[in-house]
Amino acid sequence: METSKEDSFLFLDLLTRERALSFIAGLVLLGISFALDHLASVYAFVYSSFDTTRHVGDLVLDNVPVVNLNFIIIQGALLTIILATLLVFSKPRYVLFSLKAVALFIAIRAFFISLTHIGIYPGQIVPGAGILDSIYLYYNFQTGFFFSGHTGMTFLMGLIFWEKPLVRKLFFLASFIFAVAVLLAHIHYSIDVFAAPFMAYGIFKIARYLFPRDYALIESSP
Fold first, then answer.
1. What is the band of 184 on the pLDDT scale with cuts at 50, 70, 90?
2. 182-203 average pLDDT score
3. How far is CA 49 from CA 45, 110, 120, 125, in A?
4. Do the Cβ atoms of 196 and 148 come closer than 8 Å?
């Protein structure tokens, strides 16, 4: 049960020399991870035109109808990113670890995207022509399948906010909703979705190992 005790740790406490350097390092890592993700997505998109790239059968996708759920996959995802960012920065203790864990998640996913290339499953729902759709497409050409960023990232945030039961449950619920949406829209194979929570958990554990001081701030939260 969460207590109502006020946390004395403020955002200004992140501006001490050691923590400021850690904060800058987190931002740099995040920037690098976004660049790697974009390069991996472009590479996967180019690779999708090769003759060797074919779609494969999928036990789930072969048996469920195609449903246009772009309002969840695109608008819902962008809204979730905005809300998660506001939430993290409203809890200063979570900033340093969250930045680095998210950067690690994006970089590791970029690595996996660049490895094995499978064709787009027939009937995949494509984004529209709106501004939000364009932003989404800039970072995701829908050819980087393994593993699902929608499912995995929200699951990771649930793990980061494990000590906040309400927040944790909301992120896990969002992860489940995104999982169902990307499957029904046929933009991910089922293995991408079902593997995502396990990948997120592994990345969370790696982040805790690599950045113990940053995670210690979360553990010391009242």
1. very high
2. 94
3. 7, 19, 10, 18
4. yes
